[in-house]
Specification:
It is a single chain. The protein is mostly beta strands and 324 residues long. The chain is 10% helix and 23% strand. The protein contains five helices and 18 strands. A 14-stranded mixed β-sheet has the order 1-2-4-6-7-8-9-10-11-13-15-16-17-18, with helices on one face. It has a two-stranded parallel ribbon with strand order 3-5. A hairpin with a 2-residue loop joins strand 17 and strand 18. The longest helix has 10 residues. The termini are far apart.
C-alpha cells in the first residue's frame, strides 16, 4: 500500500491497519506523527515487512506509546525487514526499541538534516542486519559502538553526514562486502589506521575524499596499506591533493574488474600495469593531469591501460587510434 499527500493521516488504529499488509510506503503526509496508536497491542497480528517513510515533516514514531517508553510489546508483533526514512527535515530522532526488531535486514536514513541519533539510548538491531545506509544526515553524530560485532552486515554507506561524524574505536565489521564513505575524514582516517586489508570479504569500495586534504597517495604509501584481495570494483573521487596511486597497495587484486577515478586534479599516476591486468573497465573523469598522461601514446600511463578492453576518459572511449 502506498499513501501520499494525505494531510489528515496522523496514525493508524487497530481497526484501520490492514492485518495482512506486508509493504507500506508513506510520502508527503506532513501530519503523520506515529504509525500505530495505543489500540495496537501484542495480541494483534501484524505482517508488515517493508516500511518506507519519505517527505513527512512531522516527528514520526512507530507507536504513540513510545512517547511513554512502553512500546516493548509492540515490537514483538512487527516483522519489519526494511526500514527507510527519507526527506523528513523535522525528524530529530529514531524510535526507541529498534533492537527489538529481530527480523530487520536493512536500514536507510536519507536527507534527514536534523536527525540526531544516540544508539546507546534507542538500541540497535545486531542479529540479522545486512544493510546500513546513512546519506545527507548532517547532524547524525556517531556510528553504533557495537557495529564491529555486526557479523551479518554486508553493506555500509556513510555519505555526506558532516565532517565530524566518526567511527568507533572498536573497528569495522569485517564481513562487509560493500563500503562507501563520503565527506567523512575522521572515518577515513580510522579506516586507514585500523587497516583496510582487514576487510577480507570486501568486493566494492567507494571513497569520496572531501576534506581529506593530507592524502597524497591511495592507498596511503607511508603506512603500507594494502587493499583487500576480493575487491571487484574501486571508486575514488574528490581527493584534491591525491598525486599517485600506490602500486604496492594494489597487489593481489586478481579479481579487480572496474576502477573509477574522478575529481582528483593533482593525480598523475596509476598503479603499475602488472597491478591492473584483471581490469575490464577504467573510468577517469575530471583528472586533467592524468588525462594528459593517458592520452599520449608514448607516455607511461597509456602503457598501463592500453590492454584494458574499455577505457573511458572524460566521457570519451579511449583506443590507440584516439591517442596522440
Amino acid at each position: 500500500m502506498e499513501l501520499g499527500r494525505c494531510q489528515s493521516l496522523v496514525s493508524f488504529t487497530e481497526s484501520t491497519f490492514p492485518p495482512a499488509l506486508k509493504e507500506l510506503r508513506i510520502w508527503s503526509c506532513d501530519n503523520l506523527q506515529y504509525l500505530f496508536d495505543q489500540s495496537m497491542s501484542s495480541s494483534n497480528t501484524c505482517l508488515l515487512e517493508h516500511l518506507k517513510i519519505t517527505g513527512c515533516q512531522s516527528p514520526i514514531w512507530l507507536s504513540s506509546r513510545e512517547l511513554e517508553c512502553v512500546a516493548q510489546d509492540l515490537y514483538e508483533i512487527i516483522d519489519l525487514e526494511i526500514f527507510k526514512v527519507a526527506d523528513s527535515k523535522n525528524i530529530k530522532s529514531l524510535p526507541r526499541g529498534l533492537d527489538k526488531l529481530n527480523h530487520l535486514l536493512e536500514i536507510y536514513l536519507h536527507n534527514c538534516l536534523n536527525l540526531v541519533v544516540c544508539f546507546d539510548e534507542i538500541g540497535f538491531p545486531t542479529a540479522n542486519l545486512k544493510v546500513f545506509e546513512i546519506e545527507h544526515c548532517e547532524n547524525f553524530g556517531t556510528i553504533p559502538k557495537c557495529i564491529n560485532n555486526f557479523t551479518s552486515l554486508q553493506e555500509l554507506k556513510v555519505w555526506n553526514c558532516g565532517a565530524d561524524i566518526s567511527f568507533p574505536e572498536e573497528g569495522f565489521p569485517t564481513n562487509l562486502a560493500s563500503l562507501g564513505i563520503s565527506g567523512a575524514p575522521k572515518i577515513y582516517s580510522s579506516l586507514v589506521e585500523w587497516g583496510l586489508h582487514r576487510l577480507t570479504s570486501l568486493q566494492q569500495l567507494e571513497i569520496s575524499g572531501e576534506e581529506c586534504s593530507n592524502v597524497a597517495s591511495f592507498p596511503e604509501e607511508g603506512i603500507g596499506m594494502a587493499l583487500p584481495p576480493p575487491l571487484i570494483s574501486i571508486t575514488i573521487r574528490n581527493f584534491k591533493n591525491l598525486e599517485f596511486m600506490c602500486s604496492k597497495g594494489f597487489q593481489h587484486l586478481t579479481s579487480l574488474d572496474e576502477l573509477y577515478i574522478s575529481d582528483c586534479p593533482k593525480l598523475t599516476s596509476l598503479p603499475a600495469k602488472d597491478m591492473l591486468l584483471s581490469l575490464g573497465r577504467i573510468f577517469v573523469n575530471r583528472c586533467p593531469l592524468l588525462k594528459e598522461e593517458c592520452t599520449r601514446l608514448k607516455e607511461r600511463e597509456w602503457s598501463k591501460i592500453s590492454h584494458i578492453p574499455f577505457a573511458l576518459i572524460d566521457g570519451k572511449v579511449l583506443t590507440p587510434r584516439e591517442v596522440d
